[in-house]
Write a structure and sequence with these properties.
Layout: E1 13-17, H1 21-33, E2 37-41, H2 44-54, E3 58-62, H3 70-79, E4 85-90, H4 95-103, E5 108-111, H5 116-131, E6 138-141, E7 144-147, E8 152-155, E9 158-160, H6 164-175, H7 183-191, H8 200-214, E10 221-224, E11 228-231
Parallel strand pairs: 1-2, 1-3, 3-4, 4-5
Antiparallel strand pairs: 6-7, 7-8, 8-9, 10-11
Amino acid sequence: MSGIRESTNGGGRILVVDDETSIVDAVATALRYEGFEVEEAATGREALSAVARFDPDLIVLDWMLPDIDGIEVGRRLREQGQRNAILFLTAKDAVENKVEALRAGGDDYVTKPFSLAEVVARVQAILRRTGGDLPGDVLRYADLTLDESRHEVFRGDTRLQLTATEFALLRFFLLNPRRVLSKGQILQNVWRYDFRGNSNVVETYVSYLRRKLDAAGPPLIKTVRQAGYMLEES
């Protein structure tokens, strides 16, 4: 892992979870240089306890832990209704492993070996997109309501439990109803970087969001072939 320059940017609470002390020390130090308040954990159980106590804005979470693996920690947090953003650290580079990380509630992932600069950049990108650009605003379309200040989404009277990235993705759709949004536009505006040019993450998250929306009413997100996606009432 390579070093990064000290900066005054940043802010927020980060939990770093890895059973390799050298990785925890390096990542935590890099994030503290960027102005974040950081706590550390070495096991899945310690991570769950720290989330309940520390309530971090983001968790840097290793996939392989000695007791409860990171994927299971992510699933448990989402089942508990926790909305903390999650950045997975994984040595597994296969597509199916990355998809599994996203399905477990992850907002992004970094493949080992990684640079500290990359981890910091991805942490900052996640927090930018999940922190809310429109605090206090309420966005509505059809029977959908997204409340920025309360970080709540309703479809009719049904409250939807969304991850931080699903929330950011829906917000972008609600800001652009009845407009075709390309995968590139979604990557740029929701992820705010090119995700290594991988547009599959857009397909994955649109699928997750669509599934949750469709469970509470008629379909709202349409696929426009060879163009992108559009939020439109049937």
